[in-house]
Specification:
The protein is of the alpha/beta class and 208 residues long. The protein has seven helices and nine strands; from the N terminus they run ααβαβαββαβαββαββ.
Length: 208
């Protein structure tokens, strides 16, 4: 089962499943971007709109992109705003879905499903304004090392979404190679217990 099919099948239960990574990343995004000003946002991997509803309280316009039509359908059922444009697209392909430049690009729990980070940051650098920001929120590599992956159950069977393990240096190298500087790196823990393996990694970049 490929990534698109996996998330299409997951969509009906995505918002109701117990999912610590989903919930912690949503909190992490709000904390990371709380003091960042942005009028336009390209949201990569918007899913069912878990972050879109908060981002639109800060932005004047959002282009919300996801690979899964079923996940997008759930998002559009929840979010009624003329300021949000929902688009189905594969970000590993040319970004013909928009010709705009944005103040902020967010990537939430999506880059683990993409092998070539370099190509994503190259495309992001073409769609971000000078001085604009890129936020990345991912399942922490340490969790991946211990065997954690995006997964869900359907028809009594566990489904594991195809994933790639990216180290912290993989993100920072791909970003630097495409004109981004690193502003902030944070780790988030279950129940804020720093004795545990961190669950979520966030990195905030800025375009020179």
């Amino acid at each position: 089962m490929d990534v698109k099919e996996s998330y299409n099948n997951w969509a009906d239960q995505y918002d109701t499943n117990v999912n610590k990574t989903r919930d912690l990343e949503a909190l992490a995004l709000k904390e990371c971007l709380a003091d960042i000003r942005f009028q336009s946002c390209l949201e990569i991997g918007c899913g069912t709109g878990k972050n879109t509803s908060w981002l639109i309280t800060k932005a004047q316009e959002i282009t919300a992109v996801d690979l899964s039509a079923e996940m997008l359908s759930k998002a559009m059922e929840k979010i009624y705003s003329g300021n949000v444009d929902f688009i189905q697209a594969d970000i590993t392909q040319p970004w013909t879905f928009t010709n705009k430049q944005f103040d902020l690009i967010t990537c939430s729990l999506v880059l683990e499903h993409i092998e070539d980070l370099e190509s994503v940051f190259k495309k992001a650098s073409e769609r971000i304004k000078s001085g604009g920001y890129v936020y990345v929120g991912e399942l922490h590599p340490f969790k991946q090392y211990s065997g954690s992956k995006a997964r869900f159950e359907t028809d009594g069977k566990e489904q594991i979404v195809p994933c790639f393990t990216h180290n912290l240096s993989d993100f920072t190298r791909a970003a630097r190679n495409n004109g981004f500087s690193i502003l902030d790196v944070n780790e988030y823990f279950d129940d804020n217990n720093r004795m545990l393996i961190p669950r979520v990694l966030t990195i905030l970049f800025q375009k020179a």
